[in-house]
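Shift notes (night). Ran Arylsulfatase while the centrifuge was going.
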Amino acid sequence: MDSVMKSIRIFAILIVCVVSSVAFGARQPNIVLLFSDDAGYADFGFNGSHHFKTPRLDQLAASGVKLNQFYMSAAVCGPSRAGLLTGMYQQRFGFEENNVPGYMSHSAATGDDMGLPVEIPTLGNHLQNLGYRTGIFGKWHQGNADRYHPTKRGFDEFVGFRGGARSYFDYDPADPKVAKSDLLEFGFGEYREPGTYMTDFLAEQACAFIERNRARPFFAYVAFNAVHTPMNPDPKDAALFPELEGKRRQMSQMTLSLDRAVGRIVDQLNKLGLADNTLIVFTNDNGGPTDASSASNWPLSGCKATHLEGGIRVPGIVVWPGKLAADAAYDKPLSSLDLLPTFVEAGGGDASAIQGLDGVDMLPYLTGEKAGRPHQTLYWKKENRGTIRDGDWKMMRFPDRPAELYHIENDPSEQHNLATKNPRLVRELYKKLFAWECTLERPLFMMKRLYEEKAAVRFDQYRQQYP
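Came back to this:
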């Protein structure tokens, strides 16, 4: 009997060891999304810059796959983040305009009520359901009202600001000119300023989150406000880049701070032995603004807020050691809408079970498991401007002039409008774009229309004069 019991105990121990080994080997990957703000397409070494210095991001690009045609679903930051967080074209639920309080009127929502509809689950929600600890550090810009708060939208931790932009230095909370949504918030409702340069502080907070959660799968969404205006470089870099002038010099210094912050987060992963089981993505929220900050989107035409390539095509890097090749590039179009299904699938979930997604899992395409195009067709829309990319053809529709047509593969700088030479194709793409638009919700936030207000005033005056 003793020998039988001993054998049973040994067998039980072996079973436990096997189960533990399998569980350890199959641990879900950590996921880190590094997200810059308003950066220029060409303002990184890995994308060809000879003036801006980004050694850590260049190193990151060399350790994974560089996405040469990575698109955001919008050309401005609020809608593009809504698309990223939901995996859906944000126009499907009316998040078509930038949700900037005081800038819009005649809307279903105004002021702090302009936010991501609460009934739509976010990337954070989906990863929480898979057992992830989720945190966001930096810019939210998905609604200032409490019901839109990140900790109520799928994120366990939040250190950042609810609005769309803020200073890189401390505010005086008593200053009446400073909106509450611009103040730095810890969790829900606890406000205090960082006491250090904002880009460094966000990296510090992300690193602390990684260390606290090193023993479990985590998702860190590091939404830097760098390099969005105001142009506030770190004073310690004041002497750097003397060959540049004005805003270009300031932006180069701010980009270097961003690069150091990214390096600090990567170093933390390596220090804790987590790098080999971490999926890292770096990208930017929209094209760089060439006026406010003198960003460079070369060789692309256009800038932030346009549907030219320079407004919607952004830098992209994906790194996952052992899963993705190093020093590789992927040339077919991918979208920020793909991040949610990619992260869900990587975390062991089933993205096909999520209703309404417009993105695809990128990883089989990046590994070569799947050939062909991840997307035959991509769409953009803002008010009555609309754009469609179908294969390598891109058509842009305007309210005030004829449509334009470009063959992006041959003409990524969009210098040769082929619309007059291909009227039948323009007509087909126009119909396809219109059919997609018929599936969308009315925009929640509409551009302020001063002529409507003036007309209303004149009509009221007329009624008072001639009752």
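The longest strand covers residues 30-36. The first helix runs from residue 2 to 25.
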